[in-house]
Design brief:
The longest helix is centred in the N-terminal third of the chain and has 18 residues, at about 5-20. The protein has five domains: about 5-85, DNA polymerase, domain 1, CATH 1.10.150.110; about 90-150; about 155-245, 2-Layer Sandwich (Beta Polymerase, domain 2); about 255-320, 2-Layer Sandwich (Beta Polymerase, domain 3), CATH 3.30.210.10; about 335-340 and about 415-589, Metal-dependent hydrolases (TIM Barrel), CATH 3.20.20.140. By secondary structure, it is α/β, with parallel strands linked by helices. The protein has 25 helices and 17 strands. The strands form four sheets. A seven-stranded parallel β-sheet has the order 11-12-13-14-15-16-17. Strands 2-4-7-6-5 form a five-stranded mixed β-sheet, with helices on both faces. A hairpin with a 4-residue loop joins β6 (about 230-235) and β7 (about 240-245).
Length: about 600
């Protein structure tokens, strides 16, 4: 079992114990175990072979260690099975649907006999679910919309799961087969798509068959779908399918291009080759007249042979990138190394997991020049949001940590709720005390499009709002985006000098790539940040950069590529004059 699967079992136990009314201390123990296993750097499947090793992990006691050992070594846990048997079948599945809480799920089982996702969908469609207490037609319609979005993408996994699995497989294969000379992820994961159907890995070796055989025998593999001379397809723990293809060095460039996709980009390249009397496949370019094959070690060489500059993988979606390459108008995409600061970070002042000072030190250790501590405002009671008094104390601690840590600029900030009417949690005087104000929606997500649009634009026009956070509020594969006139929103943002956040959290990826491109074309500027709630979250910046690149965002369009002195100058520029601050690409350093 992978770490996420083990963590989910303990999270489910905590949920069921809460429904039973068990001791809050027991519930916290299982919740803590779920968090530990989810973020564990090593593989719990290996550590759990020895209970004593498990006990060395902070937060894992004797009982949790014993249950984890049982779960990993046998594939099930008697305690969990017994506990789950006390509730209606399918209860945990039903509760995974957004807006279906524990009490609603239990009432649905008791009153309507709903024990599966299929029965839930039927009850939503025939109107019976809406008759449950505290549900109603509006909430039922919203739940159905969530369910339809999830069903439509049920065969895909978020990149936040796919990429770590791919990297784990590559690391394991390098360790097991040191003779392999190169391994790289391909397909939709390499293009940083927000979801993937399966995972493609390509390699270079002198003896491909030995590599595919070694790969099929890795401990993480639970099922071998096929294994031959140059390729192997397997299912790994956690359910992901990985397809490995191994070639020699001379074919690698064409192979990588072919299997990186997208399908339409590949079709357009093959049509281009045909017009030049060539045939393009995973082995190289074949002259259709002579039949001679030319091989390529790099993708850049293939593009050059087709009369094109190298096109980054994130752009290969047949959305005009080939025309842009032909005309010399390819954007110079933002790079992870361009990022100088993280402007959306939480601490245990609100719903973060570690003290403010620790988050600042962690940001500094990652080479950042600046960080903004943006704990939640008072409206987020569930997230321990800051009252006006606590905000003042938070600001004071930011100043103290700035002096104590040194070597990194720490900005006073807040993630402030946009209320249903577009007003904010804090007054203008209170907002004026902050360096960074991220205005976000966390409630009232089902408002009609016109109401939602006006609500967001009102926040955009506030002179103290630096940026709009996770605009669409979506969760990848879990919660659909709000309905709004995004064209109007982006035009307002550009006119007012209000930034749009590209939230790097893998579960959000918000803005999505198409919105980034739309906003970019309307003159919007962005910042990419992690929305980190713990140190490991600071490492998620790469997801945001990958998503920004899919939206064709350039360095000069991303405000936190500025060195700290230029960024401070940006903050000192009144809105809406900030709208033109980065028009000159040279300003980004």
């Amino acid at each position: 079992m992978d770490n996420q699967s083990v963590a989910q079992v303990f999270a489910d136990i905590a949920t069921l114990m809460q429904l039973k009314g068990e001791s809050v201390f027991k519930i916290r123990a299982y919740t803590r175990a779920a968090e530990v296993f989810e973020h564990l750097p090593g593989q719990v499947s290996l550590l759990a072979q020895d209970e004593e090793t498990l006990k060395e992990i902070p937060g894992i006691g004797d009982a949790i260690a014993s249950k984890t050992h049982e779960l990993v070594t046998t594939g099930k846990m008697e305690f969990f099975e017994r506990l789950r048997g006390e509730f209606a079948p399918g209860l945990l599945d039903i509760m995974t649907v957004p807006e279906v809480g524990p009490k609603t799920a239990m009432r649905a089982a008791e009153d309507l006999g709903i024990e599966s996702i299929e029965e839930l969908e039927a009850a939503l469609r025939d109107g019976s679910f809406a008759t449950l207490p505290r549900v109603g037609e509006k909430k039922a319609a919203s739940i159905l919309r969530h369910l339809e979005a999830r069903v439509n993408q049920a065969d895909r996994m978020p990149i936040g799961k796919a990429l770590p699995v791919a990297e784990q497989a590559i690391e394991a294969l390098y360790a097991a087969a040191p003779e392999v000379r190169r391994l790289t992820v391909a397909g939709s994961v390499r293009r940083w798509r927000e979801t993937a159907g399966d995972i493609d890995i390509l390699g270079v070796a002198d003896d491909p068959e030995s590599i595919t055989a070694t790969f099929a025998g890795l401990p993480m593999v639970v099922d071998v779908l096929g294994q031959g001379g140059t390729k192997a397809s397997v299912v790994v723990s956690g359910g992901a399918q990985i397809d490995l293809r191994v070639t020699d060095e001379k074919h690698f460039g064409a192979l990588l291009l072919y299997f990186s996709g997208s399908k339409q980009h590949g079709i357009s390249l093959r049509e281009r080759a045909q017009r030049a009397g060539l045939s393009l496949n995973e082995y190289g370019l074949t002259d259709q007249g002579s039949g001679d094959l030319t091989t390529y070690e790099t993708e850049a060489e293939v593009y050059e042979a087709l009369g094109l500059p190298y096109i980054p993988p994130e752009m290969r979606e047949d959305l005009g990138e080939i025309a842009a390459a032909e005309s010399g108008e390819m954007p110079v995409l933002v790079e992870l190394t361009d990022i100088r600061g993280d402007l959306h970070v939480h601490s245990d002042w609100s719903d973060g997991r570690v003290p403010l000072e620790e988050m600042v030190r962690e940001a500094k250790s990652r080479g950042l020049q600046y960080v903004a501590m943006t704990d939640h405002s008072s409206g987020r009671g569930i997230a321990n949001g800051l009252s006006v008094e606590r905000l003042a104390a938070h600001n004071k601690e930011v100043e103290e940590v700035q002096a104590l840590v040194g070597g990194i600029r720490v900005f006073k900030g807040s993630e402030v709720d946009i209320r249903a009417d577009g007003t904010l949690d804090y007054t203008d005087d209170e907002l004026a005390e902050l360096d960074i104000v991220i205005a976000s929606i966390h409630s009232g997500m089902s408002q009609p499009s016109d109401v939602m649009t006006a609500r967001i634009i009102k926040a955009i026009e506030n002179p103290h709002v630096t940026a709009i956070g996770h605009l669409t509020t979506r969760f990848v594969l879990e919660r659909p985006p709000i309905e709004a006139d995004f064209d109007a929103i982006f035009r307002a943002a550009a006119a007012n000098g209000t930034l749009m956040e590209i939230n790097a959290s893998p579960k959000r990826m918000d803005l999505k790539d198409s919105h980034i491109r739309q906003a970019r074309e309307l003159g919007v500027r962005f910042f990419i940040d992690t929305d980190a709630h713990e140190p490991v979250g600071l490492d998620k910046m790469r997801y945001g950069v990958g998503n920004a690149r899919r939206g064709w965002a350039e360095k000069h369009q991303v405000i936190n590529t500025l060195p700290v002195s230029e960024f401070e100058r940006f903050l000192s520029t009144p809105k809406p004059a900030r709208a033109t601050f980065l028009v000159n690409p040279a300003a980004a350093g």
